């Protein structure tokens, strides 16, 4: 499988990362410490740190991964996890990846503080990279997360939401971190600014495709695949790509959303409408367009001996699409 190939060549790196994460975010207070341990025990594919490691190996002689690259990979996963903690509170998710969310296990106050703590820890480790350009690039992501959440909150159940609005919000909530971490890895390899920018664009479009596929899974996926209950975007009024495309075809779906799913069966009916129209296919096509754009800008490796890691960066697009096949 594509997944096995991508993650097998960085398996040892990710094993080290997993063992480091809990020690990096260890908190003095037992509640915060328990929350942190609970979060990282949930696992996940670790796509963001895997991309950092792959780019490091793709851009360094002899596949070297510097301690700074490894630390950046860890920082990106801490930032990502912090954002999930806050997202779960806002979206009132009870489980993620089959594990009880922090606010459900403790309470909202602990979850918000745990998320803040993780953001603070990531900022401290980021500052200690002693690379101002990387600090500027990655720290902007935390601002983007907040802007994405505010944008999403302001347009819930809003039938005037455009595809451009959706893509901007998806950039702030998901693609920004992936783009910045890819660029950060290139910065740590001391590459030309033009090449850094191309890695940024690669990460941006991979991130947009990843979010679009995640939004398709909200309609068709299992709780295990998605990490959160199916239909949660619909229920919360978050109008994603498959929903927006279907709205162009279905007046009935428009009515359900306008009435904010006032009846018990409305969500199930809405899911059926989306599944029986062209919205899912059009959303997948949009994801494929972003993956192709990512591949078009992906820089070649510094030497032919790095082909395996370069090929893995190409396969990331197939891995993302594989989630719905």
From TrEMBL:
It holds the Pfam family polyprenyl_synt. PROSITE patterns: POLYPRENYL_SYNTHASE_1, POLYPRENYL_SYNTHASE_2. GO terms for biological process: isoprenoid biosynthetic process; quinone biosynthetic process. Keywords: Chloroplast, Isoprene biosynthesis, Magnesium, Metal-binding, Plastid, Transferase. SUPFAM superfamilies: Terpenoid synthases. One of its GO terms (molecular function) is metal ion binding. It comes from the Eukaryota. Its cofactor is Mg(2+). InterPro entries: Isoprenoid_synthase_dom_sf, Polyprenyl_synt, Polyprenyl_synt_CS. Belongs to the FPP/GGPP synthase family. This is Prenyl transferase. It comes from Dermonema virens.
């Amino acid at each position: 499988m594509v997944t096995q190939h991508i993650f097998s060549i960085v398996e040892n790196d990710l094993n080290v990362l997993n063992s480091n994460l809990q020690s990096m975010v260890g908190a003095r207070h037992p509640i915060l410490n328990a929350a942190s341990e609970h979060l990282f025990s949930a696992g996940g594919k670790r796509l963001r740190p895997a991309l950092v490691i792959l780019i490091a190996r793709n851009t360094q002689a002899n596949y070297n991964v510097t301690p700074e690259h490894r630390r950046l990979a860890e920082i990106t996963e801490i930032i990502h996890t912090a954002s999930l903690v806050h997202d779960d509170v806002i979206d009132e998710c009870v489980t993620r990846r089959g594990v009880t969310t922090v606010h459900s296990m403790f309470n909202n106050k602990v979850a918000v503080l745990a998320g803040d703590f993780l953001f603070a820890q990531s900022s401290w480790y980021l500052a200690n990279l002693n690379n101002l350009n990387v600090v500027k690039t990655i720290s902007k992501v935390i601002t983007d997360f907040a802007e994405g959440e505010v944008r999403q909150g302001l347009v819930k159940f809003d039938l005037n939401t455009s595809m451009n609005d959706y893509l901007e919000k998806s950039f702030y909530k998901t693609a920004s971190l992936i783009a910045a971490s890819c660029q950060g890895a290139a910065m740590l390899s001391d590459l030309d600014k033009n090449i850094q920018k191309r890695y940024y664009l690669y990460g941006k479009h991979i991130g947009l495709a990843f979010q679009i596929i995640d939004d398709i899974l909200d309609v068709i996926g299992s709780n295990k695949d998605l990490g959160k209950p199916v239909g949660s975007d619909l229920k919360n009024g978050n109008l994603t790509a498959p929903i927006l495309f279907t709205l162009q075809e279905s007046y009935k779906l428009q009515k359900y959303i306008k009435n904010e799913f006032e009846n018990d069966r409305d969500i199930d009916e809405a899911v059926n409408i989306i599944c029986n129209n062209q919205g899912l296919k059009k959303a997948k096509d949009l994801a494929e367009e972003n993956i192709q754009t990512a591949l078009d800008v992906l820089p070649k490796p510094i030497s032919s001996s790095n082909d395996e890691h370069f090929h893995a960066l190409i396969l990331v697009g197939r891995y993302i699409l594989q989630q719905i096949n």
